[in-house]
Amino acid sequence: MLCLQAIEGARVPALPWHPAELSSALSSLAAASAALATPPAALLALEPTSWGSVIDGTLDRWRTAPPPHPYASELAPLEARFDELTRSSTELLHCDLRLDNMVLDSGGVAWICDWNFLSYGPPWFDTLTLLLSAEASGIDPDPLFWTHPTAAGVTPELLDGALASILGYYLDAGSKPEIPTSPHVRSHQRYYAVLTWRWLGRRLGLH
User: Fold this and answer.
1) Which of the four CATH numbers 3.40.720, 3.30.1360, 3.90.1200, 2.30.130 does domain 19-204 have?
2) Maximum Cα interatomic distance, the chain, rounded to a whole number of Å
3) Which of 46, 51, 139, 204 is most buried (CB neighbours < 10 A)?
4) What pTM does this model have?
5) In contact, 115 and 94? CB cutoff 8 Å
């Protein structure tokens, strides 16, 4: 059964983010994460993907298929540490949260859609992936990340490791052959690799 809910005035946020709309998106993410902290049994019965399964083959590129990068040797240990500290995560997250998976209604409230990849994992990972589009908007994502409720307990080492893992994924995926039936996927991945490196490189003092 497929159930749909109509959202009055629905539209995808535009880049650059309007500050009030980004704030609404982050608030909705906080509410979703709080709700998922005590998920109903029916949701768990769907057997969400384990975080280890998400990491393997996706967020392990620096260790298994390292893409060309001048700082690859520095990024691999960050990725490995992120894996070590989060692999056993038992909370739930969207796992594909981007600007285009947010919808704003006529009142400015943000709705999270396309829950195709619900999985176990660290909820703050959704906050990080959403904030890559803040980087694209010329907004420093660091203060927004650290003040978000999902970031409680996260360390700078964990954030750097997550960014390194995402960077490896985007660099690897963006270098693969173009997809004729979805011609913008690879350019999107290459662009997000640039955004990820801008954020991470700045944090590490590498540019």
Assistant:
1) 3.90.1200
2) 50
3) 51
4) 0.95
5) yes
